[in-house]
Amino acid sequence: MDYLNVFKKIKALAETGLVYATNGYEVERNQELIDLSQELIAALANQPIEAFDKFYLPPKEYPTPKVDVRALILNEKDEILMAKEKMDVRWAVPGGWADVGHSPSEVVVKEVEEETGIIAEVERVLAIYDKRCHPHRPQPWYVYKIMFLCKATGGELRGNFDIEASDWFAIDQLPPLSEDRILASQIQELYHLAKNPHLPIVCD
Description:
By secondary structure, this protein is α/β, with parallel strands linked by helices. The chain has helices at residues 3-19, 24-45, 104-116, 184-195, and strands at residues 66-73, 80-85, 91-92, 95-97, 118-130, 143-155, 163-169, 202-203. It is elongated and about 60 Å long. The two termini are 37 Å apart.
């Protein structure tokens, strides 16, 4: 077992829990998990925990973009798989934030199944978008979006705790979009790239 990767994942999950904590109990428990994970990492490296302090400086650490991974999946009718978010009751191609301990392609496959019930596999990268370069609504994070072309290999449509529904849509009959997550212009471009495999990956 890759214990270092496991301990990093525990730390990342606890840090996420700390961000969304709604009471003192949740703050205390997530902080305790962060402290324990750092102790385990230090023990694995046979180093004092103080030696790792410079690697974890949340407020002062050099800021880097967050990474969003999303999948364009077409069925036999060339319809696009989409998920309806409960948060804003609008639709997006499935995906979400990248997870520590998983490769981008692993995350996007996991997100597709969690959000839609469809089992998928990655075929290729279609685009890497800098969210700043597209007319999304402003948000506090700087975000890169990795857009994959995937194909469905099984599963059945369903939602989950934060997804109201999932369905297939024709490119000329898109539903109301969750524009924080995906824009109509991006779906059009991704669809064009998917249907023309000789085209290069789009960047920015």
